[in-house]
Amino acid sequence: MPDTAEILLKLDTGNTGFMLIATSLVMLMTPGLAFFYGGLVGRKNVLTIMLQSFISMGITSVIWFLFGYSLCFSGDLKSGTDFFGIIGNFDQSFFSGITVNTPSPLNPTIPLFVFIAYQMMFAIITPALITGAFANRVTFKSYIIFLVGWLIFVYFPMVHMIWGGGIMAKWGVLDFAGGIVVHNIAGMAALASVLYVGKRKELSNVPHSIPLVALGTGLLWFGWYGFNAGSEFAVDSVTALAFINTDTAASFAAVVWLIIAWVFEKKPKFLGLLTGAVAGLATITPAAGFVTIGSAAIIGSVAGVICYGAVMLKNALGWDDALDVWGVHGVGGMIGIIMLGIFADKSVNAAGVNGLLLGGAEGMKFFITQLTAIVITSIYAFAFTYFMLAVINLVTPVRVGNDEEELGLDEALHGETAYETHTF
């Protein structure tokens, strides 16, 4: 049995240091999301939606320690130690059996605690993404129940099935940094929430502070380098590829969205540029480490067109997705998985596969696998979210009352306001 010093000498400080930075960057994305959403809502609901992001940082971290990490990454289908390849077991609840010297299974030169922390940041931001859909009209108590239930019954199984050695991993589904695991399922849950909760009484979609939205976008874009490049879990050429692909797709999507909005709305809108960038970031996420830079540019451009179209469709259908979570994250994640099925290139990442364009029969098989995964996960995330909200409503009202909605949730639910009103 080697002593601690000998084990520590096997750790790669460069990889470990990089992953600690990447973890910090992903953590920063949740406050960034709070600013992004906070700027988009009206003045009387700013604190409420920001609190919904920040509370996830606390509650999700607690659940992650108790059993969340274990349900995601303990056991696997191959060894028969999970539950039917759908969710893990409780063997590592409370981080049982894990010490400071336990190596990560993905990269044994990095402590497992770093992997645990990194994956925890993903778990924190994913349910927070959904909150933009039902802005201004959901009670805080029901949101807390929703947050816990959604993590356990939607997020944790998705992580295990795709990243934790579950059934979709066995099928060959690839998702580099969360096209399905984060964005698509959050977007579909958002759509279910919109349809269940119903429309706001006040349908004003005028952001109260575009500078706050810009600040949030900047923090999200910055953090996304850790989100995507960090998902390689090492410092190598794929890390660099994921980094540059992230920026490329975001930039192309932002410019394309700006141009389309300029054509149809007659003026170049700053908000359109910001929204387009986020759409590009969400769309490249599953493909960032598996495609060339040229493909990333195409993926970003497609995201700008289709996500803009999805938002217009949402408006035409009268869905009150207040902050376009479905159109940006849900559709973006879906497009990213499909584009990965088309453009995957094994020459840039030997751990990947060749997609439809390069892989012949195998590429077709992979493409169909990606489509199948999207269909199954989208239906499940939508259906379970809708069902769960109905169950929560039997316990405590999901929607706030008319008087509370009119007053604003900041004051009505939390007794606080973001901005003081002075009378002179």
Q: Can you describe this structure?
A:
The chain has 424 residues and is mainly alpha-helical. 67% of the residues lie in helices and 0% in strands.
The CATH topology label is Ammonium transporter fold
CATH architecture: Orthogonal Bundle
Tell me the overall shape.
globular
Name the average pLDDT.
95
**Beta-strand share of residues:** under 5%
Provide a brief overview of the structure:
By secondary structure, this protein is mainly α. It has helices at residues 4-9, 13-40, 46-73, 112-130, 140-163, 167-171, 179-197, 210-229, 237-265, 270-284, 293-317, 325-343, 360-395, 402-407, 409-414.
Features:
424 residues, mainly alpha, 67% helix
Task: Chart the SSEs and their pairings.
Blueprint: H1 4-9, H2 13-40, H3 46-73, H4 112-130, H5 140-163, H6 167-171, H7 179-197, H8 210-229, H9 237-265, H10 270-284, H11 293-317, H12 325-343, H13 360-395, H14 402-407, H15 409-414
Helix pairs in contact: 2-3, 2-4, 2-8, 3-4, 3-5, 4-5, 4-7, 5-7, 5-13, 7-12, 7-13, 8-9, 8-10, 9-10, 9-11, 10-11, 10-12, 11-12, 12-13
